[in-house]
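Troubleshooting: if your tokenizer reports a length mismatch, compare your output against this known-good record of 182 residues.
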Amino acid sequence: MKPLAIFILAWSLQLAQTIPDFSGTWITDPARAVLLRRVDTTSNGWGNVLEGLRRNQPYTLRITQSSAALDIEFPQGTNTFLKTDPYALEGGKTTNVRDSGEYWRKTVTEAKWDGTALTLRATRQVDWWKRARPDEVVHQDTELGTVYVLKLEQGGAQLVVETTLTDEKGQAQYRMIFTKAS
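Known-good structure output:
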């Protein structure tokens, strides 16, 4: 087979790939949480969050997905610092700025498909209006970066979420397993 024909065949197979639907209600099992990596740049770094992974009671996570966007709804009071606006699934970065009076909050999100896995990236920045405008800020030492890698297993009955948290305290990466609620 000629190189061009191989390229066209591979490209058409990629187009035909089924995009998984992560929609649903998912229940976590804290006993199955696994710490994958931890690098502290301050005393205890992400330690308090990581210690709480296994102490948490099972909680419900709701995912809503359309062809254009995916939204993860955490329970009230649980991981609320990880909540973002819906991720645009058509590619590219999306920026959302919220005016909180004297300060602003900027979140930049991006979604990328990698085979059957979905990688969601979010960067959160906060500053005072009197110090800087959101469009002027590209990076902050205190910004919070999160990366979620979502994969369906066991015929869609199990959701594996690998989360990476990065800020001035360091970096933590952990895996949690969720079971689809019936």
